Amino acid sequence: MDIIEKVKSIINGYYTEQFDKIYLPEDIVKDVFVILASNSTVIEQFCVLHNESFDHIMFQCIVEHSPRICSVRQYLAINNIKQLDLCRDYILKNKDSHFFQGVALLSSINLELMPELVSFTLFDDRFAIILEYDDNGGFYLTKNRDVLIACRKWLSVDIIDKLDLETSFLQEPLMMSADMMSEVSYVLCSHDHMDNESCCWYHSVWQYLRLMNMVSTPSWHHDFYISNLKASLQKIPYPKILISGAADYSSLSYVVRVMELLKKDGHYDVLDLCESPLFACKWYAKRKNIPLCTKKMSIFDLNSCEEYDLICTDAFLTRFPKEQISSILSIWYKALKEYGYVVTTVRIYDDKHQCPETPSNADIATFSNKAYKRSKIWEKVINYSAEEIAKKAGVYASKMKSNKIGTREDIISAFINSGFELCCVEDVEVAGELYPSRYLRIRAQKGR
Ligand SMILES: C[S@@+](CC[C@H](N)C(=O)[O-])C[C@H]1O[C@@H](n2cnc3c(N)ncnc32)[C@H](O)[C@@H]1O
């Protein structure tokens, strides 16, 4: 029986053999779509836009072959601002279409809690055409219950209505800079606190891992940063801000975003031991047209006095051994103006949240495999293959060290003992890089 006949008899209930996947050659996807669509009342599509065009057969099918009597929803899953422009054009072009279109921002979804990411079209929760990204690649038809449930879960993510597209987009232009950052880090990376030779193993893969939501960044604490940065900056006319350590421009982008929301101008300094993240921040500042100074130095050499209204950094303190935390807090305290703020996150280590000093080979392999699977989606648009990204991710996992600086109480005491008053303390579980982790989110104020 040819595939089209098979599909027809499956829909009519004549086909009694069990099947999990029926692979569909690309030239018959449209025909299968038409058969399924004409037998459905609700058609829902979730399509990951992994290159810069809408010439994909899935997009064509839903626009050209969805019966008008059906309820049709199309979600475009994107990860960067260039794609956002593209989506806007696509949606405008199809503005007369009779169905709902919205955008899902992959960067704002906790991928750890989600099923594997695929593009799919779901027909009445009975059948789905799936486009998978693994080695086999390609389309298949399924009615497997677990797969249909996974599709439903993807359809329940937060969707931005086309009207709100512009205002709700915060994610930085990661896909535009990941390749560039990787290249420059081979030239610019110097040494860091863990590796006397070069931190290239870290900065060269960092933005790729961010693209795949596998490393700790401010986006894991989105609401905390937005509301606490707002609270810290809103009363200050022209704030002077220090980003104290940053693997790239992600902390900077949060501060800049809040300044935009508050309609304020200010001045930004970024400090890091390595030139690569500073380069990333300069690149970002140029795009945003904001004044930025970079300080290539160790935090221990910062000698500023009452200079900053705000110091912001993400997951910085655990880069250091416990004995050095009070020195860093004192340096921050001194660098802040009276009533200035620190806004940061710190990983907690307590009885419930232990992890090995050095990850096991099995844990490194799991991290690397995850990177392999996730980078399959991006490999057409980045400079490295999924195999190369997986290898780099493995090196990252084996070298990265997060120091055990203490429990929630230890961290709170360290801030208080350095003279800070705590304005906000939140204690949250996040997916973590190699292991589930607990973080303290802190906004602390320098007293008089
Ligand atoms: C801020 S932390 C963690 C990354 C962070 N989660 C993010 O989103 O950017 C990492 C940065 O700290 C920097 N760093 C490490 N030790 C430092 C030191 N003693 N002084 C200044 N920067 C340092 C590293 O070069 C790295 O770029």
Describe the 3D structure.
- The protein has 448 residues and is of the alpha/beta class.
- The protein folds into three domains: 3-167, Endonuclease, Chain A (2-Layer Sandwich), CATH 3.30.870; 174-212 and 358-392, no CATH class; 216-357 and 401-446, Vaccinia Virus protein VP39 (Rossmann fold, 3-Layer(aba) Sandwich).
- It has helices at 3-12, 26-38, 57-65, 81-93, 145-155, 165-168, 174-188, 200-211, 222-233, 250-261, 275-288, 325-335, 361-378, 386-399, 408-417, and strands at 22-24, 42-48, 71-78, 100-105, 119-123, 127-132, 138-142, 160-161, 240-244, 267-272, 292-296, 308-314, 336-348, 420-430, 437-446.
- It has an eight-stranded mixed β-sheet with strand order 1-7-6-5-2-3-4-8, with helices on both faces. Strands 11-10-9-12-13-15-14 form a seven-stranded mixed β-sheet, sandwiched between helices.
- Helix 12 links the parallel strand 12 and strand 13.
- Helix 8 (200-211) packs across helix 14, helix 9 packs across helix 10 (250-261) and helix 13 runs antiparallel to helix 14 (386-399).
- The chain is elongated and about 80 Å long.
- S-adenosylmethionine is lined by residues 192-193, 199, 216-218, 245-247, 250-251, 271-274, 277, 298-299, 313-316, 319.
